[in-house]
Amino acid sequence: MSLLELKHIYKIYGELHALDDVSLKVEKGEWVSIMGPSGSGKSTMMNIIGCMDKPSKGEVLLDGVDIAKESAKNLTAIRRDKIGLIFQQFHLVNYLTAVENVMLAQYYHSLPDEKEALEALDRVGLADRANHLPSQLSGGEQQRVCVARALINYPEIILADEPTGNLDEANEEIVVDLFHKLHDEGTTLIVVTHDPEVAEVAQRTLVLRNGRLHKEIVNQNFTGKIHFEDMESFRKEEKGNA
Amino acid sequence: MFIRMLRGTLLRQWKKMLMIAFTIALGASLASAMLSVMLDVGDKVNQELKTYGANITVVPKASSVLTDLYDVEDENGTGAYLREDELGKIKTIFWAFNIVDYSPFVSTQVTLPDGSEAKITGSWFNHHMELPTGETLDAGIGSMRSWWEITDGTWLDEQNAAQENSAMIGTTLAERLGVKAGDTLRLEGSASALDLHIVGVYDAGGDEDEQLFAPLNTVQTLADLDGKIDSIEVSALTTPDNELAERAAKDPSSLTVAQYEIWYCTAYASSICYQIQEVITDSVAAPVRQVADSEGAILEKTQLLMILITILSLIGAALGICNLVTASVMERSGEIGLMKAIGAQNGSVSGLVLTEIFITAIFGGVIGFLAGFGFAQIIGHTVFGSAVTLKPMVIPITAVLVVLVTLAGSIPAIRMLLRLRPAEVLHGGH
Ligand SMILES: Nc1ncnc2c1ncn2[C@@H]1O[C@H](COP(=O)(O)OP(=O)(O)O)[C@@H](O)[C@H]1O
Ligand SMILES: [Mg+2]
Questions:
Q1: N or C: which end of chain A has fewer CB atoms below 10 A?
Q2: Confidence check: pLDDT of B216 > 80
Q3: Which one of B335, B338, B356 would you mutate to disrupt binding with A, by most A Cβ within 10 Å of its Cβ?
C-alpha cells in the first residue's frame, strides 16, 4: 500500500477547476517534487495532502485512511501526528525564540521537551542560535528553524511549499541539503518549487498545469547523497557574505 | 510553553491589551459605582426624598372618622369644618421652622352659566404672612402646586386688589365651557352668585382640571362658609420615621416620658402631625399616603435609571472589547493559522486567546472596581451628602458582570478564530 494516494481529485471554486482530476501515488520514503506555473494548483494540492483543505471530489488516502471524509478536528490530529509543514514565508512566531518555536510544535503534539528541540536545531546546524528571536535570524536560518519544527514530531511526510522561494542560492543549497539528509533517514518528502535545480534533485518531478497532471519526470541520475558534509563551514561562509 | 506564549502575546500586544483593560475598567467602574450607590443609597435616596415635600393633610375630626369608617370621600360635608382663624397657629408649633408651606382649602358646588355644575375650591395662592418671629412667608398653592402648567393667562395674584373677584380654571372645564383667560364667568353658589374674572387656565394633569380655584374668601361667600375651611395641606421637612416614630404615631401615650420627649422634639411626620392637632381644634393631621408612595416610585425610577446606566455602560464595554479583541485576533491570524497548522485544536487556541483576555480583564476589572468605588464616594458626597459604604455584595456582582461582558465581547473574535482556516492565511493569498 502506498503511503499517499490521490484518486481523481477535484477542487472546484465556482467555475474554476483549481485541481482537475488529479491522481497520484507517493510511496513511503520517496522524494517528490511538484512544479508548475503560478496558479496551476500546486498549493491547493499541498493543502489537501496536508489536511488543511478538502477536495471537492475524490479520495485522498493517507496510510489507507480517506482524509477527505474526516472531520476538521480529526484532520488537525492527523496533521499534527503525520505531517510536517514548511512554508515559503517561514511563519515563525515572532515573539518566541528559535527553540521555543520548535517546542511549540511539540506542545501541540504532546509535551514540549527542550532537550529534544535543541537536538533538532542542532541537526539543522542552528544549535548556537537556539535563543535568538526570528528577527535576529537570517532568512536561511529562519527556514532551517522551520525545518527543525517540521521534523520534531517525526512526521511521515514533510510537505514544503516553495521552501526556497524566499532564500538566496547559498541558503537554498543548505535547505536542499537538509532535504537530502531527511530523505536518507527515510522521511517522505513532497516539495513544491519553481526552481528546476531544487526540483531535479528529487526522485520524481510532477508538473501541474491548469490543475491537471501535465507530465511526470523520473530522475534517472538520482544518487541520494549530494549534500554538503560540513554545515559549520558553510554557515561561516554565509556570515561572511552578510 | 503556554505561559511563554501568553507572556509573548501580552507583551507584544500591550497597547491593545491596555486598551481592553481600560475599556473593561470603564465599564466595571460605572457598574460598581452604580451598584454601590444603589445598594447603599437606597436609604439615602429615601431620606433625601422624604426631606422635601413630605406632606401632611389636616381635616376635621368628624369627617376624618367618617372617611375612615365608610371609606368614602367626604365632599361637601357633614357640616364639620376647621376654623380659618386658627391657620396662623400652625406656624407657632414646636416644629414651626420645618413647616415650609401650607394652604387651606374649602370647596363647594356651583352652577355654571350653561346650567351644569362644577366644583370650586377656595385656597391661598400667594398668601402673605407676617410671622411673630419677624419672618414673612408667602404660602399657598402658588408654591404647593408648582407642577401646574399655566396654559393661558397667569397665576392668580392675591396681593393684587384688582384681582379680588378672580378665579383660575382647569383646562378640561375651560375647554368644555369655551372659556379663556380674560373672560368673566357667572357662578351661582348655594348662598350667592358672583361674576368671577378668569385670570388663568391651568393644567394640573388630574381631577383638578375639571374645577375652578378662587381665593378662600370668594368661595366662602359663594357657599356662606365664612371663616370655615375643609382641610389644610402642609408641606413640612421631616425626619424619616424610625421604630419610635411608628410606635408614637399609633399611640403617643404608649411612650415613656423620656421617649415622648425625644419623639416630640424630633421632626418626625408623626410628631409634627401631633403638634398640628394640638393647635387646630377638632382636627386630624396625617401624613399623606399618596406622597409616600410616589417617593417610593421615584426611588424605583432612580434605581431603574442607575440600572439602565449600568447596562448601557456594560453594553458599551462589550462592544469596545469586541472591537479590540477582534482586531487583536485579526492581527494575529497568521500566527493562529500556524498554530492550527502544526496541530493546535480550536479549543487550545481559543483557550490561549481567552486566557489572555481574562488576565487583561481581571487587571482592568480590579482597577475599574477601585475607581468605581471612588466614583461612588463622589456621588455619595455630592448628591447625598454622605459617604457610600462598601457592600461586600458589590464585589462578586461586579466580577460576574466583568466576566459576562468580557465573554460576550469575545464571542465574535472567538467565532472568527474558530472559522479561520490555516490554508487561507499561511499561503499568503496562494
Ligand atoms: N480559496 C480560493 N478561492 C478561489 N480560488 C482559489 C482559492 N484558492 C486558490 N484558488 C485558485 O485556484 C488556482 C490554484 O491556486 P494555487 O493552488 O494557489 O496555485 P499555485 O500553483 O500557484 O500554488 C488559482 O487560480 C487560484 O486563484
Ligand atoms: Mg502556491
A1: C
A2: yes
A3: B338
Residue-wise pLDDT tens digits, B20-38: 999 999 999 999 988 888 7
Structural domain includes residue A104: yes
The domain that holds A134 is classified in CATH as: 3.40.50.300
Check: CB of residue A152 under 8 Å from CB of residue A106: yes
Provide the residue range defining the domain that includes B106: 55-241
Query: Residue A165: how many CB atoms within 10 A of its CB?
Result: 16
Domain stop point among B197, B225, B241? B241
Cα A147-A148-A152 angle, rounded to 5 deg: 120
Which of A53, A95, A133 is the best mutation test for B, with the most CBs of B within 10 A?
Answer: A95
Residue ranges making up the domain that contains A117: 28-53+71-241
Reported ipTM: 0.86
Q: Cell numbers 364667568 correspond to what residue?
A: B185
Q: What's the structural domain count of chain A?
A: 1
Q: pTM for the full model?
A: 0.64
Q: Do B170 and B313 sit in the same domain of this protein? A: no
CB atoms within 10 A of CB B341: 26
Yes or no, beta carbons of A50 and B341 under 8 Å apart: yes
Per DSSP, what are the bridge partners of residue B140?
A: none
Are B79 and B20 members of one domain? no
Ligand nearest to the CA of A88: 2
A101 touching chain B per CB within 8 A? no
